[in-house]
């Protein structure tokens, strides 16, 4: 009887080691870490917006429409309820992506407007904020790509045999990817040109 139970335990250990459970857990943790970095970089961008708007307002106060659009877009980003687990809910991801896309678009319009004000472009604080924004946009792109790759790896494991049986047994589902409308335009950092108009 003892020998049979030992054989059963040994078989169970061998079976579980080849079923993909540990790989699924590891990949799920990679997705969580990658999503946390995506949120971190978007928050970094949102934190830059008030200073950028205040600096532009000092030089281009009559561009109130553009400044209001940026401020409202940032507010909508803050209203989207995003948690560390929101990557599991496709509708939350879509809301988050739409709000971030709206902020990206508003920031692009703000930077275009700033081209009309040579004194603003010459302002050291504004140039510093633009450089920080450009760097943050690059970081967002890198973080999003890492997240997308982590989701792709996980989804491949969930759909591959024999790990798909383990995934089904433990209720592990395919995770939605994070995409945004006008992906190509948002993936490009804002253009910064200090040479024109000086």
Q: Can you describe what's shown?
A:
With 198 residues, this protein is mainly alpha-helical. It has a single domain, classed as LemA-like domain (de novo design (two linked rop proteins)), CATH 1.20.1440. It is 75% helix and 0% strand. α2 packs parallel to α4 (90-114) and α2 runs antiparallel to α6 (124-159). It is elongated.
Features:
198 residues, mainly alpha, elongated
Cα-atom radius of gyration: 23 Å
Low-pLDDT runs of 5+ residues are 185-198
Q: N-to-C terminal Cα separation, in Å? A: 89 Å
CATH class: Mainly Alpha
> Pairing-aware structural class of the strands and helices?
mainly alpha
Silhouette: elongated
**Any idea what the CATH superfamily is called?**
LemA-like domain
Q: Which architecture does the CATH hierarchy give at level 2?
A: Up-down Bundle
| Percentage of residues in strands | under 5%
Number of extended strands: 0
Task: Classify the helix fraction into a percent range.
Answer: over 70%
Give average pLDDT, whole number: 83
Discrete helix count:
8
The CATH topology turns out to be de novo design (two linked rop proteins)
Biggest sheet descriptor: none
Overall domain count: 1
H/E element sequence: HHHHHHHH
Helix-strand blueprint:
Layout: H1 2-17, H2 21-59, H3 64-79, H4 90-114, H5 118-122, H6 124-159, H7 163-169, H8 183-187
Helix pairs in contact: 2-3, 2-4, 2-6, 3-4
């Amino acid at each position: 009887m003892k020998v049979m139970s030992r054989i059963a335990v040994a078989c169970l250990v061998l079976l579980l080691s080849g079923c993909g459970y540990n790989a699924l857990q590891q990949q799920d943790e990679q997705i969580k870490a990658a999503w946390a970095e995506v949120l971190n970089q978007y928050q970094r961008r949102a934190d830059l917006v008030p200073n950028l708007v205040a600096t532009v307002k000092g030089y281009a106060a009559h561009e109130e429409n553009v400044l209001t659009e940026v401020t409202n877009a940032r507010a909508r980003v803050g209203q989207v309820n995003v948690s560390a687990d929101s990557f599991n809910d496709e509708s939350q991801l879509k809301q988050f992506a739409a709000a971030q896309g709206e902020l990206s678009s508003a920031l692009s319009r703000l930077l275009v407007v700033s081209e009309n004000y040579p004194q603003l472009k010459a302002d050291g604080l504004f140039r510093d904020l633009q450089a920080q924004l450009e760097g943050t946009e690059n970081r967002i792109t890198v973080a999003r790509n890492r997240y997308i790759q982590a989701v792709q790896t996980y989804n491949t494991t969930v759909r591959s045999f024999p790990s798909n049986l383990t995934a089904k047994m433990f209720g592990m589902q395919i995770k939605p990817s994070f995409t945004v409308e006008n992906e190509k335009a948002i993936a490009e950092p804002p253009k910064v040109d200090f040479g024109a108009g000086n």
